[in-house]
Amino acid sequence: MNHFGKTLLGALFALSCVAPVQAAEDTLMMATTTSTQDSGLLEYLVPTFKKETGIELKWVAVGTGKALEISKNCDADVLLVHAPDVEKKFIEDGYGIDRRQIMYNDFVIVGPKADPAKIAGKTTAEALKAIYDAKAGFVSRGDKSGTHSAELALWKKSNLNPDKESFYISAGQGMMATLAIAAEKGAYALTDRGTWIKYDNKQGDANPLAIVVEGDSALFNQYSVITTNPALCPNVKSNLAGQFEDWWVKPETQKLIEDYKLEGKQLFFPNADK
């Protein structure tokens, strides 16, 4: 092989080594909640994010509690979660920085269409008391997710502790699986509206569950983005994380969130400017 051939071969080899490194540098790891995936929101938004930023976004969808643990272990660059009180403690403890709210939806209580505990039209506190008194089945996610945290807070505000009651079932699973268990057992459950719409649309007329309590201010459900603290995790891609957060709060992305609908129903409501 002549000198030119050797030089070209060496250059191609160098490029083959550099290209994967460059690709890795432009890949951002996110830990997020099951609701952002189950609702179809990520599938809808991520291609636009990559097109506009050139950043490849990879993610794992788990409960908020698990997502925060992943970040603490330096295994995620950014978070998209929905448990404000837990998130604020996470920030105070130094694990995350630059928390920005981006959107909200709400929680709803769903249950058998026959509504055995007769909770339709009640406030959240009244509904939980009625479920407790009637010993009606209730399926909890039981997974330290944002939804699970919100559910526990609602029971506490109602001065009730169903944890050791036989009617209270801890699924230890994501929202879709929890709804499936509630449907199978004819029980109530707390769910974010986005995942409920996706689940209800999938089940159609075969769905034995329906929304029975909604619209209470106690059921507000805020989502935020957070960057893992690079001071604790030096390998965090803070520059890409900053671009990620900026992208979520910009008006064009907020409009995309607003426009995302399923069966004509809006799943999330942008509020980055609030």
TrEMBL record:
Keywords for this protein: Signal
Pfam families cross-referenced by the UniProt entry: PBP_like_2
Annotated signal peptide: 1-23
Superkingdom, taxonomy of origin: Bacteria
Domain PBP: from-to ranges: 24-251
Record PANTHER family: EXTRACELLULAR TUNGSTATE BINDING PROTEIN (PTHR37945)
Protein name: Substrate-binding domain-containing protein
